[in-house]
């Protein structure tokens, strides 16, 4: 009997039960029995596409099957249909080459058997592959159009339940929504997303897919405009036919002002949402402590005796973490105890211009939709306005980030002792522009406080702000 292999595949298995490939395999076994083939191997790619549009997942079983066919383990490949084997014309050429060089045939349950030994047979196989590929592309276009219409209507995205909402994505999950609001307040106050993720994991809170939280995942969720009620399409806020941003058909978790402050706090300039470099965010003064020679940021290391250090430009400056942190803590708490201060409230003064620019963009897009203005007129003007809008929004985020500071009036020694490292760091960064570490001038390991220089922000007193 001729040895054969069965190949089965299904593009989408939402239930994860592999029922589609099981049905294909049985049909292929029936065909093999009728044709007197001895099935020696079965290859299955479940929940994997085989079209020119399927770039997300490789087909490891398909690749292994071709390799073993070239090695002579079997001479026939059985599949349910041509499209189950491949919808990629380039892959069909691999199959044709496999037949020409190694004599491996492929037969199907429902698509017939193309004679790859003749020009006409190869032509028919190529036509089938082209038709399959075209159908996939037409389907993709229909799906893309449907997704665009759903976005313009503000409908929730089908699929995985978004964290913070009940199944269906319209009504809030009270417990998860509160977690998000608490996280927003913490982020604005200076707490990092890795600390929040750890707290959630310790409390048994998982993502909507049941996985543990990671800092970058939580940061991505907190920056999503969906939390403030905006519909997302292809990674951006969807724009309706009227040229206006689309509100989603669901209850928002955060108001716009709060969400803007969260996005500002998690902006690239902040780095709190990123993986700490050299254990950077584990230490109180990383980002504030700087080398007194070159001005570079000094990072803490995780040695037996943790040390802040700078190694660059032919010099080494270092200081033990514990005494430096203790000195800065004492200086900060004394400074706060001696002064009645308030965190300055900063306001963005470009709001009117931003609203004007956004209105101009909306009017131009509405005129284009109504066919009152041509694309040649509208889109160059819109591109210029979008540049102005993006710059104004960037200024707004920077201003909000600068204003997102902890309430200094509540910070005393007892409060400090209860704070996390992130919360303490936020207080330090509010008060101090930098802490400089000068090179050591004394021999030995004894800490010299004279090496430390404080550079203060200009923080107004409470009476100055009345």
TrEMBL record:
Biased segments, Basic and acidic residues type: 146-155
Entries under Pfam families matching the protein: Recombinase, Resolvase
GO MF annotation: an example: DNA binding
Domain of life of the organism encoding this protein: Bacteria
Domain Resolvase/invertase-type recombinase catalytic: residue ranges: 3-154
InterPro entries: DNA_bind_recomb_sf, DNA_bind_recombinase_dom, Resolv_N, Resolvase-like_N_sf, SSR_resolvase
Chain ranges of the Recombinase domain: 162-272
Gene3D superfamilies: Putative Large Serine Recombinase, Chain B, Domain 2 (3.90.1750.20), Resolvase, N-terminal catalytic domain (3.40.50.1390)
Region described as Disordered: spans on this chain: 146-169
SUPFAM superfamilies: Resolvase-like
Matches recorded under CDD domains: Ser_Recombinase (cd00338)
Protein's UniProt name: Serine recombinase
């Amino acid at each position: 009997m001729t040895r054969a292999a069965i190949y089965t595949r299904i593009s989408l298995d939402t239930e994860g039960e592999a029922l589609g490939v099981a049905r294909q395999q049985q049909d292929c076994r029936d065909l093999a029995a009728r044709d007197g083939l001895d099935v020696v191997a079965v290859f299955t790619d479940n929940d994997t596409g085989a079209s020119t549009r399927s770039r997300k997942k490789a087909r490891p079983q398909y690749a292994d099957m071709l390799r073993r066919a070239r090695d002579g383990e079997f001479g026939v490949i059985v599949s349910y249909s041509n499209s189950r084997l491949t919808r990629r014309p380039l892959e069909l050429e691999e199959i044709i080459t496999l037949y020409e060089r190694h004599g491996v045939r492929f037969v199907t349950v429902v698509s017939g058997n193309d004679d790859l030994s003749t020009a006409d047979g190869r032509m028919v196989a190529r036509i089938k592959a082209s038709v399959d590929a075209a159908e996939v592309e037409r389907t993709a276009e229909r799906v893309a159009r449907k997704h665009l219409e759903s976005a313009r209507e503000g409908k929730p995205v089908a699929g995985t339940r978004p964290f913070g909402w009940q199944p269906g994505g319209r009504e809030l999950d009270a417990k998860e929504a509160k977690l998000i609001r608490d996280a927003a307040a913490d982020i604005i106050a200076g707490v990092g997303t890795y600390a929040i993720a750890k707290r959630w994991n310790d409390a048994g809170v998982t993502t909507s897919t049941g996985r543990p939280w990671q800092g970058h995942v939580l940061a991505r969720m907190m920056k999503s405009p969906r939390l403030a009620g905006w519909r997302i399409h292809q990674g951006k806020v969807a724009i309706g036919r009227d040229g206006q941003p689309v509100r989603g058909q669901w209850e928002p978790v955060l108001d716009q002002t709060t969400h803007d402050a969260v996005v500002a706090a998690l902006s690239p300039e902040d780095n709190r949402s990123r993986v700490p470099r050299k254990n950077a965010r584990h230490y109180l003064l990383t980002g504030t402590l700087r080398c007194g020679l070159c001005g570079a940021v000094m990072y803490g290391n995780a040695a037996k005796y943790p040390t802040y250090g700078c190694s660059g430009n032919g010099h080494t400056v270092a200081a033990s973490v514990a005494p430096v942190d203790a000195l800065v803590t004492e200086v900060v708490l004394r400074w706060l105890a001696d002064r009645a201060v308030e965190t300055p409230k900063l306001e963005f003064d470009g709001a009117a211009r931003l609203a004007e620019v956004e209105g101009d963009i909306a009017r131009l897009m509405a005129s284009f939709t109504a066919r009152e203005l041509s694309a040649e007129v509208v889109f160059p003007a819109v591109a210029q306005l979008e540049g102005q809008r993006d710059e104004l929004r960037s200024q707004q985020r920077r201003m909000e980030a600068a204003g997102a500071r902890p309430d200094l009036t509540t910070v005393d020694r007892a409060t400090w002792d209860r704070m996390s490292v992130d919360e303490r760091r936020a207080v330090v960064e509010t008060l101090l522009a930098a802490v400089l570490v000068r090179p050591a001038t004394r021999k030995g390991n004894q800490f010299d406080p004279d090496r430390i220089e404080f550079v203060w922000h200009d923080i107004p007193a409470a009476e100055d702000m009345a």
